[in-house]
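Readers outside the structure-tokenisation community will struggle with the description of the input data as it stands. I therefore recommend that a typical entry be quoted early in the introduction. An entry of this sort, consisting of the sequence and the corresponding backbone structure tokens, reads as follows:
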Amino acid sequence: MKRKWNGDEFQEHVAASHEKNFERVDLSGQDLHEAFLPDLNLYRANFKNANLRGANLNNANLSFADLRGADLRDANLERANLDHAIIEDANLEGAQLSHTLLTYASLFNSNLKDANLSNSDLYHAFLENTNFENAYLYNAKLEEADIKGANFNGANLRRANFENAYPVEVIPTNLKIEKLPENEKAQHKKLVMV
């Protein structure tokens, strides 16, 4: 049976034990604002409605985690693995998500205003009604992402890749086909923001 932690107990345990494996940990509804939790294995963790504002989850494994309704404003999720994570109705305003793996993640109806998603991989992510206003998506991969109703107003999309993203009418209009650089030894083309 998985243990239900409160926020303070969990932070104290992590600091004292140096344990890194917390698969399926239940921290739903807990206050973990500004918690220092980098490099942890939080596979299938439950953070539903948790307060993670300003938390450091740098390089954490959050694949298949439940972050529905979580407050992740100004959180550090750089280089984190959020593959298949459920991040619906969450607030990630100002969050640091550069070099983050978000493949197959669901960010339905989430707020990523002013977030940094540079070099992140959102392949096949579900981004319906997601707010990317003024977000930094330089060189982000959004291939085959569902971006229906997504807001990209003011976002920096330079070199962002929207190949096969849908619906097509939502894709920003200033995209062009660009051949990949020779040093990548690519013979194909991709759809990128210039």
User: Anything to note?
Assistant: The longest helix spans residues 7-17. The beta strands are 175-179, 189-193.
